[in-house]
Amino acid sequence: MRPTLVFVPIFVLALGILGAGPSAPLPHGNDHFRLGMSRSQVDSAVAARGLSVISNGTAFLVCASDHPAVEYEQYSFFRAPHGMDFLWKVTIGYRLTASTADYAAARAELERQLGEPAIDSWDAEDSASPGDSRPPATSHRTVWVDALTAVQMGARWTGAPDRNADRMRVSWTDRRLQRLVEARRKKDKTSASK
Question: Which tens digits make up the pLDDT trace of 57-66?
Answer without folding.
Answer: 999 999 999 9
